[in-house]
Write a structure and sequence with these properties.
Elements lengths: L1 E7 L10 E6 L12 E6 L2 E7 L14 H10 L4 E10 L9 E2 L3 E4 L25 H13 L9 E4 L8 H10 L3 E3 L5 H7 L3 E11 L10 H25 L22
Parallel strand pairs: 1-4, 1-5, 5-10, 7-8, 8-9
Antiparallel strand pairs: 2-3, 3-4, 5-9, 6-10
The structure holds hypoxanthine (HPA).
Length: 265
């Protein structure tokens, strides 16, 4: 059976028609992932769901063990990961409830453990295009089949959190060309690329970014929008088996080719 990894939140645990198979705890040399991997089968695909923030949402974005999470997928033999994130909308065409399949990203995080190559073996990977183009196509097709309107491009800027942004930060990010802001894309996408996995993101706009409206931002609003739109995200996910194959015609599987600079092996 084809395998596919999904990193997201707890609301994704009860997709109608998906059969729960098992829960797999994984230990990695980078420590424990945020949670065990929960396996569901649907239309010939084994979906491995991982809760990025832990089952009780107790791990803040800057403390997620991204290295263990990605290494866990790799240990389970998974080559393709879909990351689901809640984000604030910077682009004035976006409104809460919109779904974006970004095509680029900006990393504003700091102090996170963001590479597998932090001593001895050193690679400088190319991340010009942070998302697998084939997987972006799979999501686009799945969304179209599910009759869900989505934006098929956009630049995700990743802040360190857990605080939200100042109005001036969002204004600056807007001038840089960022369209949506969240706290978890980096270093997740980088670690996936370093692991030669295919990685794609699907973001839900849960709120207008700081300073783009008069209202105070609340987590309640983010959570409410997430649960309101969960059905639509699930509709898209349930169309994925129609388009998803494990064939890897993209370059993600060769991400390390020609990138090693250290002399040792
Ligand atoms: N900023 C950063 N992260 C977020 C936001 C936001 O406005 N909304 C949801 N996650």
């Amino acid at each position: 059976m084809k395998k596919l990894g999904i990193i997201g939140g707890s609301g994704l645990y009860d997709i109608e028609g998906f059969d729960f198979v098992q829960e797999v705890p994984v230990q990695t040399k980078y420590g424990e992932p945020s949670d065990s991997y929960r396996v569901f089968e649907y239309k010939g695909v084994s979906f491995y769901f991982l809760n990025r923030h832990g089952r009780k949402h107790s791990i803040p974005p800057h403390k997620v063990n991204y290295k263990a999470n990605i290494a866990g997928f790799k240990e389970l033999g998974i080559n393709h990961i879909i990351s689901i994130t809640a984000t604030g909308g910077i682009n004035s065409s976006y409104k809460p409830g919109d779904i974006i399949i970004p095509d680029d990203g900006i990393d504003m995080t700091s102090g996170r453990k963001g590479t597998y190559f932090d001593g001895g073996l050193i690679h400088h990977i190319d991340i010009t295009e942070p998302f697998c183009p084939i997987m972006r196509g799979v999501l686009e097709n799945a969304a179209a089949s599910a009759d869900e309107d989505v934006f098929t491009s956009g630049t995700y800027i990743c802040t360190n959190g857990p605080r939200l942004e100042t109005g001036a930060e969002i204004k600056a990010f807007d001038r840089w060309g960022a369209d949506l802001v969240g706290m978890t894309l980096f270093p997740e996408c980088v670690l996936a690329r370093e692991s030669e996995l295919c990685y794609v993101n699907m973001s839900l706009i849960t709120n207008y970014a700081a300073g783009t409206t008069d209202s105070k931002l609340t987590t309640d609003e983010v959570v409410a929008e997430m649960s309101k739109s969960m059905e639509r995200l699930k509709n898209i996910i349930s169309m994925i088996p129609v388009y998803y194959t494990e064939n890897r015609v993209c370059e993600c599987k060769n991400a390390l080719k020609g990138t090693k600079i250290s002399k040792n092996d």
